[in-house]
Amino acid sequence: MRDTASGPRVLLKRLRELMQEPLEPQERLDRIVRDIASNMVAEVCSLYVLRADSVLELYATEGLNPNAVHLAQLRLGQGLVGTIAASARPLNLSNAQEHPAFAYLPETGEEIYNSFLGVPVLRAGRTLGVLVVQNKTMRHYRDDEVEALETTAMVIAEMIATGDLARLTRPGLELDLRRPVSFTGLSFNEGVGLGHVVLHEPRIVVTNLFNEDSEEEVRRLQASLGSLRLSIDDMLERREVAFEGEHREVLEAYRMFANDSGWVRRLEEAIRNGLTAEAAVEKVQSDMRARMLHMTDPYLRERMSDFDDLANRLLRQLMGRGPEDVAASLPKDAIIVARSMGAAELLDYPRDKLRGVVLEDGAATSHVVIVARAMGIPVAGQMKGAVSMAENGDAIIVDGEEGIIHLRPQPDLEAAYAEKVRFRARRQEVYRELRKKPSMTKDGVQVDLLMNAGLAVDLPQLAEAGAAGIGLFRTELQFMVASTFPRAEAQERLYRDVLDAARGKPVTFRTIDIGGDKVLPYFKGAIQEENPALGWRAIRLTLDRPGLLRTQIRALLKASGGRELKLMLPMVTELGEISQAREIIDREVRHLSRFAHHLPTSLKLGAMLEVPSLLFQLDELMKAVDFVSVGSNDLFQFVMAVDRGNTQLSDRFDTLSTPFLRVLKQIADAGARNHTPVTLCGELAGKPISAMALIGLGYRSISMSPASIGPVKAMLTELPLDELQAFFDDNLMAPAHGLPMRALLQAFADDRSIPL
């Protein structure tokens, strides 16, 4: 019986020798196509490379007219070659000229050839070119010949990816791999970042493609697969209770792929055809991605990213690489490109090297975005396809103001953005000059501009931003970036550092707000919920698990010794929850008093107003607490019945709509009526136009990200408050004028030259 694998192995051995010889790129390509034709007993072998202008150019041929090299061209989708490039699928034809897509190029002299086998040149699922063999006789190429040609195409893809063929490109033209591309998504945090791509889950570049011992490579593959399966099983077992819902589904998908016999068989076949285990994973991953890209089933298309992540995990297992290797080689202007990432993962990167973050998924209120905002890093999200189109080291621009990214930008675009960055720097200088000026409207009304925080990394920005204090300290972020529950001593140390950094300015600590979308992997008490945002979270959870709350309260009381402590309860739904929490606090005060601990000089208890039920007991609420903070993110979500993490709805409803502004005014009026201080600390406070609206509605204290304080203060100092209040008197309760409230507010600002 003929050993059908011997042909591919011989071909790969010859290619390995060719890759090691010191040849010019064109000579190397010419010899590659000659060897392929010889090995496969083909009369023609041709390589077409995809250019940035979506044209496939003939780069090398054996058998066709050699004068057609770099002259013969096909558009993407044109002819058999263009069809293969567009579909990312091979074509195996015994009579090519009968195929409806056949297109004759007279300069090549290929009209006499009948049988045709073409395969896409793929890298990470992207088509970079097409490799073709042809014969005069009518024949159907065997599966092992298709496999051999696909494997050879992968070697050529690496040549293209490493830039070897760039010298063959005619002036003014670029290969597709280097073409500029832009993505439009959503702005998650303002700012502009220019830098170079760092893939959060980097594609490992496989340099050792050809094996010396197939059986040894199969053994390596099986060992790494075994380790991978064990690690997935371990994650599922350790997180059996807490790691539920969507996160668990991802792990179950990983387990399914890792145990898929078809996937493993294809990996082993690629190894026995002469590839190393790493090269086999890359080849099968790229083939699978190309096929899945063209599937119409949305569920299967979503599983594509699961498969990619799993293949990358397997590659790292095989090559013995960890995330620390990436951090060590980080450029000084890194822009992280990720499908998704956690808040803790972002903090693993050195802050001084970060210039921006690009996410394929996520939402403006996800925790990684909250951390990035605290760090002052521009973030653009919902950039579908960015990960597969980017390579480590690519130049990239993140426009966090417009929600746009530019990958491999043209020089003139890069220059325009560089000027934009310089303009922003000059504007930031203006904001810095405003820091020491009173935070007052044009007609002399004081408005406190506070900042939101949650980590030690935020603290230096208190002075830099000129904030009047910390209006919201999210204590749960310390829990989210830790691998286990932070000990009482660690909590106390953080809270004391926060109060020290505030230097007497007010700080409002929100008690731990976990549950819902804030999953702690190590919390064994979590449950699977159909509607987690409406479920067991925040004060509901901590009242049911009072040990958590008691530990935190004790740490806060001890850290605040000799100073004022402002405590805020999240997700309050009814006043009885405030009474229960007050009992726990009083018990901890009594306990510390017995042991002569230094206690706070005063303790003020407040509630977060984010559940609509409180809107129907506003006066009772104002009397039950010392202060109220409006959580506009969740309040808007619940009032408008819109999931704030659902990107399909993110732009449908306006936070400056008349109904929601009326709700906010009711709250401000109730606070004034009961002499209870009210602060708003959601996303609304951070935009000059919405901050202007809040001030007009009666809010005299708003809390935002540190980077927002400068722009909001610049607006505030030019704001004639009496005119704005008259504007709301005329427009808030009156029938609609045909214009949305946002447009009316913009016109108000434009007429008075108020900077927004």
UniProtKB/TrEMBL annotation:
Reaction(s) catalysed by this chain's protein: L-histidyl-[protein] + phosphoenolpyruvate = N(pros)-phospho-L-histidyl-[protein] + pyruvate
EC number: 2.7.3.9
Domain GAF: 24-170
Cellular component per GO, a single term: cytoplasm
InterPro entries: GAF, GAF-like_dom_sf, PEP-util_enz_mobile_dom, PEP-utilizing_PTS_enzyme, PEP_util_C, PEP_util_CS, Phosphohistidine_dom_sf, PTS_EI-like
SUPFAM superfamilies listed in its UniProt record: Enzyme I of the PEP:sugar phosphotransferase system HPr-binding (sub)domain, GAF domain-like, Phosphoenolpyruvate/pyruvate domain, Phosphohistidine domain
Alphabetically ordered keywords of this record: Cytoplasm, Kinase, Magnesium, Metal-binding, Phosphotransferase system, Pyruvate, Sugar transport, Transferase, Transport
Kinase keyword on record: yes
Major site of localization recorded for this protein: cytoplasm
PANTHER family in UniProt: PHOSPHOENOLPYRUVATE-PROTEIN PHOSPHOTRANSFERASE (PTHR46244:SF6)
Entry's Gene Ontology BP terms: phosphoenolpyruvate-dependent sugar phosphotransferase system
Protein name per Swiss-Prot or TrEMBL: phosphoenolpyruvate--protein phosphotransferase
